Amino acid sequence: MLVIHMARGCKSLEVARVCDFLERRGCSLRVVGSFESPYIVSNGCEKVGNLVLSLPGVKTVTSTKKPYPLASRETFPDDNVFHITEDIKVGGGHRLIMAGPCSVESRSQILETASGVKTLGANVLRGGAFKPRTNPYSFQGLGSEGINLLVEAKEKTGLPIVTEIMSPEDLEWLEPHVDILQIGARNMMNFALLKAVGRTRKPVLLKRGMMATVDEWLQAAEYILAGGNHKVILCERGIRSFDTSTRNTLDLSVVPLVKSISHLPVIVDPSHGTGRKELIKPMSMAAMAAGADGLMIEVHPRPHEALSDGAQSLTLEEFGDLMESVNRLCSVLDEEVKAPCGLRIAM
Amino acid sequence: MLVIHMARGCKSLEVARVCDFLERRGCSLRVVGSFESPYIVSNGCEKVGNLVLSLPGVKTVTSTKKPYPLASRETFPDDNVFHITEDIKVGGGHRLIMAGPCSVESRSQILETASGVKTLGANVLRGGAFKPRTNPYSFQGLGSEGINLLVEAKEKTGLPIVTEIMSPEDLEWLEPHVDILQIGARNMMNFALLKAVGRTRKPVLLKRGMMATVDEWLQAAEYILAGGNHKVILCERGIRSFDTSTRNTLDLSVVPLVKSISHLPVIVDPSHGTGRKELIKPMSMAAMAAGADGLMIEVHPRPHEALSDGAQSLTLEEFGDLMESVNRLCSVLDEEVKAPCGLRIAM
Amino acid sequence: MLVIHMARGCKSLEVARVCDFLERRGCSLRVVGSFESPYIVSNGCEKVGNLVLSLPGVKTVTSTKKPYPLASRETFPDDNVFHITEDIKVGGGHRLIMAGPCSVESRSQILETASGVKTLGANVLRGGAFKPRTNPYSFQGLGSEGINLLVEAKEKTGLPIVTEIMSPEDLEWLEPHVDILQIGARNMMNFALLKAVGRTRKPVLLKRGMMATVDEWLQAAEYILAGGNHKVILCERGIRSFDTSTRNTLDLSVVPLVKSISHLPVIVDPSHGTGRKELIKPMSMAAMAAGADGLMIEVHPRPHEALSDGAQSLTLEEFGDLMESVNRLCSVLDEEVKAPCGLRIAM
Amino acid sequence: MLVIHMARGCKSLEVARVCDFLERRGCSLRVVGSFESPYIVSNGCEKVGNLVLSLPGVKTVTSTKKPYPLASRETFPDDNVFHITEDIKVGGGHRLIMAGPCSVESRSQILETASGVKTLGANVLRGGAFKPRTNPYSFQGLGSEGINLLVEAKEKTGLPIVTEIMSPEDLEWLEPHVDILQIGARNMMNFALLKAVGRTRKPVLLKRGMMATVDEWLQAAEYILAGGNHKVILCERGIRSFDTSTRNTLDLSVVPLVKSISHLPVIVDPSHGTGRKELIKPMSMAAMAAGADGLMIEVHPRPHEALSDGAQSLTLEEFGDLMESVNRLCSVLDEEVKAPCGLRIAM
């Protein structure tokens, strides 16, 4: 595939000429990004890359065999660093700690959790309002009422919020309220939903499907990037294997692997990844040591009362203990990175 | 869980009283089905089942521990037999043979295939207009134009059509045109989509997710049944395992297993299930011998020209050969069933 | 790789010259088979195959990229048909029905089962004397006493016996007593054991490992073939996947797949493959319809008293019912094969 | 199950009486360990545990539902700490760093590697002399010659050696030469081999099978413990999953999980676990952060010349870099443990 970057301020006629050039040769193409400085992704014209480069308005042309040209480090060598809010960034050494309950259950529950996790060091509040439940008769979340409560918690604490979106139909009204749109593992190949969030400019947290290969995961990200939304955060949350001693098999080796082949930030969810609260702290430590850009942790003031996922939720106290250890670990890891270690992918 | 069947012609006040009875005891409930003779599914009131039975208007009360009470044979012991068209039924010994191309590619391609497979014994035409492709730059199907071509093929041949729906947003305009709505493997846990097709009264072909357990598959079916649509056909299409010598691992043992625990018809897709055309015939034979209610076979007039899945498509000639062998096999199997063999699940 | 077949009656000097020719060029080599008409397998000399063919005493030279040259149909296109006893053959349309208890438990149990399954149509008696149990405190089999009982059953019924061997140390004393040496799934990659049975001339039943790819399975067979023992029967017994609704996932598509790439006979064990007795009959039917060369079925006079695997054992009556259906099915399948159907792999 | 610990200096008559007591009640039993202070493991007499405790010579009686009573922390709450050599211990905070080539290939290769890894901080030398290769025509290791070279390297450097044993037949001559007997992943369920190494008193490194559950792994360890050898080191080396982007899926969550349910030390092999050299350092860091008792790392002076596994071998320089980072990380982790963190399992 070719990724053609047009020069800043290029004219629309120049873009049209490149497209015409590609179409005449029977190559597929897609224009991505801003009007000022768009990218053109093309499949099938790899051999005439040099000719394309000589066309007016073309800045760079990169060729790649990866099926995810926009997500690949071959095309964009630098870490993709972007803002969640004015103050909070992700990627390139900026860590994202998302914490909060599996489901928003009540006003007091979400407000108590939000102010608690903020004090203890989280910089994003998580909470589910629309819950993808295996069983139709299980609690399906508070819906729009849950969103209202999250917004209230955000106003009270200043924490940006991340919540799951389950259908393209919900996007229009949901988007203005949330700071990060979450695509759940079960929807990683819901291509209609991926296309929808690709049309927004909100950051998207893309969870890895429980049976998705690394290649499939990055192609799911590519759906969003190809829509013009470059703010994608990948989240490893465990895959399905034959062993049921943990809820899922947390595949930490994808952290350094994906970071070596893609510029996108990768965070880890050890709560879903293990399903057992006593494993969350050690696996959080392991995730950070493997080079993760952040964590997503389920925290509930009273886990035994949780309507979903109580067995994998930490109390506020346990979350505080985890943050202390993670912070100490990260101070060593940060020192490592400053040293010329030659190994960008992990530390 | 309790499944409460109200008597035909029961009064709305009687339904309301049952609901009130359950709610007072803190049990969840859901009313399903026609106004004349609805079902009430309730969770948590198993101990007062006998009291419920004594309420006016209640016909039967069944208790089950299965998380899919409406899909379970415990609740509905008889095979779920229903019409696709006036002439064509599925379930209870009525076989469904769906054949056609992976994607609708052109008018001539779909018309040629449709008339070919009809002559050779298919009773449903398959064809994808909206294609769930792993890569955003791959051919995504002809969309609404493809639907028009399918409708034309249906008018020409009389074959009912099955095609995939990828988003709740498409349902309104798509529903009147197609005879069976297909939910693809990647969307088996797209609960927004399951709820949407549960609100229609069109038959739904629910493919097993590539990572779905039998329990999860039947709970996905339960989402549709709980919406009031009882016309669900399950389709085994191979699961993902460690072995890549076939595209997927066709799990035929779920055919007798699911038929023993559920009343829903189960068909098999050996094309996706193996991904290799030379394996389609033997695995079709095996599927029927295992007790399947039908097959879904990819057929293309010229597989090497197919825009997708050419490697797993049969020519019309090969499909004819397959049908001949399957018919001969089924004549023996039908004879078996007549004998009092005590083993309903397979033959 | 090259497979060099020496002419019948070739001289040892001629064999030596071929070996010398290969070694001078730095290629690995191994001499396999009888003194009269040996094969030489060589790795690395593919380019000089024609030169090798011109050496004295060389009959044929076949080149293959498969890592299992002796197991491959590229090298040996015809079905590998061989004798179990003077009367019983396997492969090429000769069906092997192995039946008997998981473990030999007592004299009366094995004698009753043996005479029962013989009457009902089995042609080999199975029974475990050395049991590979996951737990060290579980019943480990009767050991040599169990072998004695199997031998007595064989004398009484005339049925040849198949039993598992767990260690190279047991081979010397075990070999004279049994007709087929079984390698269990857990030992499929016990290469010391594979080499040991490769040195015998007894038929070997090689079960597929629960985590083995098709390529690994055929290379395990190659270990035995490379030892000079060409009598290998492959047995699919289910692989391990994420789904636990059956004990293992019976992967029937390997039957036509393996038979298309290898000349070795393939049988199916639906007892271990499903772990549920109600699924054994339908999956036996499916296995035969997929083209299997036989079945291995656990039968116990009183399954509820079995010391191991009772849940997956048939009674003699159920086995009789299964055999009747299988025989009826096979009569159709045999008719198919006579027709010029062009599809050797399945029917 | 019951684990009955006899008092130090108990009389053989007292042991016999306990056994008699258990046998009369139809319970299975096994006597394990030294003559002075043996354990008796019994299945089926859980209800009379108190009676057993009152028998003469009995010190303690523990009841557990785990199928691996000797490997369980319920029975032995303290970390199992034991010596590899007089100077080197494993478990309870003592770290084992095993490094060396996949295969011993030549005298210079193993001597150069041994002195290199010793200088850089390894405390055990690994090297394969008998190699379990999937293909019978691949390099199978130098065999006894390889053992001689390992012994020479041990004499030169003082490093104890670990090497794989593939057959019970090799045990007698191999045992005196090596310090740790390795059971490979493919032989984790080779019960004849497990029983054989259970009869020695050498430490055993038991790799997890590529498709073994945690329960199966601990029961494999139990085979060795039940033979009277308590010196078992568990080694996670990656499991097989659907994703092939890494050679295996390194399942780090088993480190804290197994350490919480068993007293045995757990080390991690990121070389086999990932199969990609660039992932070895980050996954080593992650393993230690998750609480591992050590690492096993493949090191080769010139990986591109390696006869096996070159793609996953580090150079000496890379190994030095890894050790530096690991040491820095461990200094933080050690500090953690001193704090009263209440979470024994990881740090």
From TrEMBL, chains A, B, C, D:
<dbReference type="Pfam" id="PF00793">
    <property type="entry name" value="DAHP_synth_1"/>
</dbReference>
<feature type="domain" description="DAHP synthetase I/KDSA">
    <location>
        <begin position="85"/>
        <end position="324"/>
    </location>
</feature>
<dbReference type="InterPro" id="IPR052899">
    <property type="entry name" value="Class-I_DAHP_synthase"/>
</dbReference>
<keyword id="KW-0808">Transferase</keyword>
<dbReference type="InterPro" id="IPR006218">
    <property type="entry name" value="DAHP1/KDSA"/>
</dbReference>
<dbReference type="GO" id="GO:0003849">
    <property type="term" value="F:3-deoxy-7-phosphoheptulonate synthase activity"/>
</dbReference>
<dbReference type="InterPro" id="IPR013785">
    <property type="entry name" value="Aldolase_TIM"/>
</dbReference>
<dbReference type="GO" id="GO:0009073">
    <property type="term" value="P:aromatic amino acid family biosynthetic process"/>
</dbReference>
<keyword id="KW-0614">Plasmid</keyword>
<protein>
    <submittedName>
        <fullName>3-deoxy-D-arabinoheptulosonate-7-phosphate synthase</fullName>
        <ecNumber>2.5.1.54</ecNumber>
    </submittedName>
</protein>
<dbReference type="InterPro" id="IPR006268">
    <property type="entry name" value="DAHP_syn_2"/>
</dbReference>
<dbReference type="GO" id="GO:0016832">
    <property type="term" value="F:aldehyde-lyase activity"/>
</dbReference>
